Amino acid sequence: MVSVAKPSKTPPVYAAWENNTNPVWYKDPGLRKNTLFIVFLYLGTFVTGYDASYLNGLQAMPQWLEYFGNPTGSKLGLINACKYFPVLLIAPLVALCVDKLGRRPAIWLGCTVITAGGFIGAFATGLPMLYVGRVIVGAGNSFSNIGCVCLLNEITHPRLRSISSALYLTTFYVGSIASSWITFGTLKWDSEWSWRLPTLFQAFGPMILFVCTFFIPESPRWLIANGRPEQAQAILSRLHANGAERDELVDNEMHEIQSAIEREKQTGSSWASLFSTPGNRRRVAVILIVATGSQWNGIGILSYYLSPVLRLAGITNPTELAGINGGLAVFNLFIAMISATLVERVGRRPLWIVSTAGMLVGYIVITGISGAFAEHGGKATGLAVVPLIFITYGFYDIAWSPLSYSYPIEVLPFSIRAKGMTLFVWTQQLSLAFNQWVNPVALKAIAWKYYFVYLATLVIYLTLILWLFVETRC
């Protein structure tokens, strides 16, 4: 087994540098502005979260089911999966855009494309038009997501970086809460707008992000890498030192970025560089584990097919289905935000282990209860699945929510960051596409017995985490 270094108890290096900021972030104007930009960038994951609960809500909605011919099996799977197909083809273009044009242009492009896709889906007259809208949304989401996660990490003050990165994916649930309660609110509308309005709202977050990005500066790292160090220095001084012309922390940040970029230019930053050294190959292994595990650990079936899972447990009332969907979204946001605050205190590796082991135990119990309900029936047995779904999702929120994006970012050096994150998103989208297509087919064919597949994958992921994941806490 690979040895794992214990996290250091000493303060991080930057804590010893003189810095023209207040020790309390909200009392400091520069850090308040920095935090505001971070909150804007959190909208990058709004679409992903919105999509998860939005589709759960629609599957509980008789109007949507009737309009599209009660899709089940492979047809329902394709509706879910087609959003993730585009990135499988355009991943190199995403990396090129983020690296060559900049983080902000990638965000603007992504927001524009998502908005167009949301309008097409909202006014769909049949499944083909719905597919097209979702494909366009998926393509745009690739650009905005990579742009946001890179820019967030590269403009954030070192004191705020770990918690800010950890909170990025937890805001997935802000979109999830919005969509779940919008679909709950329109559930009893006796018109097509009961599902068209929630579909149209996919464009809401991206439209806000598009405007807000005009006020966010470009990545200092990107500016330095593209021969504009003066602009980078000015941005770092403004955000990290309240405009001080000479600041030890900013000077050291500039030196570190320039030195790292120079070293990385010497070693190259091609796609082959992802595999050029043992360290990079291990980084890629970690990225692939997180990318596939974030869906193949069993959460995908609860995220996108909660309504069919609940129906297997005997819960069929549309209002109850939509209410559970909404309540789960609120619960997830609460647990994920608490977990994000533990990242520095507890460390990344312990959170990964507890999260995955807890999910394994939760799935074992869900499988047993679902099997008992299928064999013997009984409303009480079926209802027992509901708290277990919350508990299992709660364990997912301990690490897989706050760390799925921040942990890969932490292990990637700047020269391969955009390419590494593009590989991460490409692999994640492939996993999602496969998962979303297969899940409804398998649920229809073998019902609750399909959960045994996820018991096996959770054992595999827990083993890989114990073997390969290292602590990155300072």
TrEMBL record:
Domain Major facilitator superfamily (MFS) profile residues, every copy: 37-473
Gene3D superfamilies with a match to the protein in the record: MFS general substrate transporter like domains
Predominant localisation class: membrane
Entry's Gene Ontology molecular function annotations: carbohydrate:proton symporter activity
Domain of life: Eukaryota
Localization annotation: Membrane
Residue ranges of the TM segments: 36-56, 76-98, 105-125, 131-153, 165-187, 199-216, 284-306, 326-343, 350-374, 380-399, 450-470
Keyword Membrane tagged: yes
Record's bilayer topology term: Multi-pass membrane protein
Entry keywords, A to Z: Membrane, Transmembrane, Transmembrane helix, Transport
Any single GO CC term annotated in Swiss-Prot or TrEMBL for this entry: membrane
Pfam family, one: Sugar_tr
Similarity annotation: Belongs to the major facilitator superfamily. Sugar transporter (TC 2.A.1.1) family.
Protein's name according to its UniProt entry: General substrate transporter
